[in-house]
Write a structure and sequence with these properties.
This protein is of the alpha+beta class. It is built from two helices and six strands. Strands 1-2-4-5-6-3 form a six-stranded antiparallel sheet, covered by helices on one side.
Length: 103
């Protein structure tokens, strides 16, 4: 489902920067027509795929602002007590935050 949705711009152990595709991707056409935004579940799915994580539990999630086609976003990753705390940033502004556990 996420084929060609994003490209990795840079990757370190605690930060991953991606660039989303344009509004013509099927995800954006479906969510939502004439007002395309990246669904919250895909924000989580993208980082899990990049990190090759198998999520067992999502402990919390908060989606603050929209992520749009062509956006460049940064995933900031912190590991604490066997949980991954992910903050998504766009232009120095926090867009989303979630915490999950893996097996």
């Amino acid at each position: 489902m996420t084929n060609n949705l994003y490209n990795i711009v840079s990757k370190t152990s605690n930060e991953i920067r991606i660039k989303l595709c344009d509004k013509n991707h099927s995800i954006f056409k479906a969510h939502f027509p004439n007002n395309p935004i990246l669904p919250g579940f895909l924000q989580i799915d993208i980082i899990a795929k990049i990190l090759e994580d198998r999520i067992t539990t999502i402990n919390k999630s908060k989606f603050i602002s929209h992520i749009l086609p062509d956006d460049e976003i940064i995933y900031n990753i912190t590991i604490k007590n066997n949980k991954k705390i992910i903050k998504i940033m766009k232009k120095d502004k926090k867009i989303s935050e979630f915490t999950y556990e893996t097996n």
